[in-house]
Design brief:
CATH architecture: 3-Layer(aba) Sandwich
Number of helices: 7
Radius of gyration: 17 Å
Largest sheet: 4 strands, antiparallel
Number of domains: 1
Low-confidence stretches: 1-7
Helix content: 25-40%
Number of strands: 4
Strand order of the largest sheet: 1-2-4-3
CATH superfamily: NADH Oxidase
Bound molecules: flavin mononucleotide
Structural class: alpha+beta
Distance between the termini: 41 Å
CATH topology: NADH Oxidase
Mean pLDDT: 95
CATH class: Alpha Beta
Order of helices and strands: HHEHHEHEHEH
Length: 197
């Protein structure tokens, strides 16, 4: 496939049938840098996160939602690291996914990261179902973001996610163009299921 092809179909080659949205979900780096976010779809994505399960219904997730063109979006982008800084700023929205790892009494919230990850999974599935794309990132400066948004020490940024519509891979630096269209891969299921009694 040529790198300038719009890579809107990077479907998973699955061994068992999946929901369409799971087959077609993938993490792009080329985003349309001109289109504003569809507010209804953004609302649905955040609502999906809101309704995900959590340990004891503690809902230990918080989000910084920053639309392109705002100072907050620029702040989040500025605190990405490495090549993330080069592409993620094109996305209509940057979302900082934050875990409440310690409750108001000072007790550790053991499943906060697990619950936050599940909330982000629900968010990304809903967004892809609605024609948006999500790309989660671990490459950012968490303490700088905590300082910039004056987060209480009970909270920690865990990932930053892009949310937006697809752009053209040709807009990416060359090394990222190749990754944008390369086949998606996974190890065999049998290498993950360690007991199958
Ligand atoms: C917690 C987490 C951290 C990630 N960090 C980055 C990152 O910093 N930069 C990046 O380009 N992709 C990052 N990714 C995206 C993964 O590389 C991507 O999900 C994986 O290669 C599978 O591709 P797919 O989502 O298209 O199936 C991250 C994904 C997750 C879930």
């Amino acid at each position: 496939m040529h790198a300038s092809t719009l890579s809107s179909d990077r479907r998973a080659e699955t061994d068992s049938p999946l929901l369409d949205v799971l087959v077609h979900r993938w993490s792009p780096r080329a985003y349309d840098a001109t289109e504003a976010i569809d507010e209804a779809k953004l609302g649905s994505a955040l609502e999906a996160a809101r309704w995900s399960p959590s340990a004891g219904n503690t809902q230990p997730w918080r989000f910084i939602v920053a639309r392109r063109g705002t100072p907050e979006h620029a702040t989040v982008q500025a605190n990405l690291v490495g090549f993330n800084k080069e592409w993620a700023g094109d996305a209509a929205v940057l979302i900082v996914a934050i875990a409440e790892h310690t409750n108001e009494n000072g007790d550790a919230m053991t499943w906060a990261h697990y619950d936050l990850g599940q909330a982000m999974a629900h968010l990304s599935v809903q967004a892809h179902h609605d024609g948006l794309h999500v790309h989660q990132m671990g490459g950012f400066d968490g303490s700088a973001l905590s300082d910039a948004f004056e987060l209480d020490s009970r909270f920690a940024p865990v990932t930053v996610a892009t949310l937006g519509t697809l752009g053209d891979p040709a807009q990416l630096p060359e090394v990222l163009q190749e990754r944008e269209v390369a086949p998606r891969t996974r190890r065999a299921l049998g290498d993950s299921v360690i007991v199958d009694a």
